Amino acid sequence: MKKGRLIAAGFVLALVASLWWYRSPVEALTAPELKAARQKWTENAPLNYRFAVRISGVQTGRNAITVRDGKVVAMTSEGDPVRESAWHYWTMEGMFGFMEEEMAICESRKDKDIFLHARFDPKLGYPTYFLRQVFGVEQTIEWHIEDFEIDP
């Protein structure tokens, strides 16, 4: 009888530990939260800044972006120059646009297999973290903003 209880206790402990380990790192993204963050960014965005974004999932890598007078002037991916036609996808505006498109898809389809998560900088509003999980297919996209710096 004692051995059975130990096994059951071990199972419960393993279950709790795995739930804790695989929990979502942030709350689910909501439309009001996304709108408020974009508004904060619109009101507070510096004209000159640079940042890096670490990407994982269906795309991987590290992009570095430099913005002057509100426009991207340089972008690299893993240290290699990126063609100008791709810059708009990895600007703050492009990233907000992507999140808004994903939110619209989820809302229109009432899709239960897609989960969106995000965090935003409390002062400036830019997205510091984004995760789109698609269950059943390999379409997960995740990014982390690293090294955000405002330049004079």
Tell me the number of strands. 7
Q: What would the principal axes of the Cα set say about the shape?
A: globular
Helical fraction equals 25-40%
Sheet-strand content, in percent, reads 25-35%
Q: Name the structural class.
A: alpha+beta
Give the spatial strand order of the biggest sheet. Answer: 4-3-2-1-7-6-5
H and E order: HHEEEEHEEE
Biggest sheet statistics? 7 strands, antiparallel
Low-confidence stretches: 12-22
Q: Radius of gyration, rounded?
A: 19 Å
Short description:
The protein is of the alpha+beta class and 152 residues long.
Could you explain the architecture of this structure?
By secondary structure, the chain is an alpha+beta fold. It has three helices and seven strands. It has helices at 2-21, 31-44, 92-109, and strands at residues 49-57, 61-68, 71-77, 80-81, 114-120, 127-134, 141-150. A hairpin with a 2-residue loop joins strand 2 (61-68) and strand 3 (71-77). The chain starts with a helix and ends with a strand. Mean pLDDT is 85; it is low at 12-22.
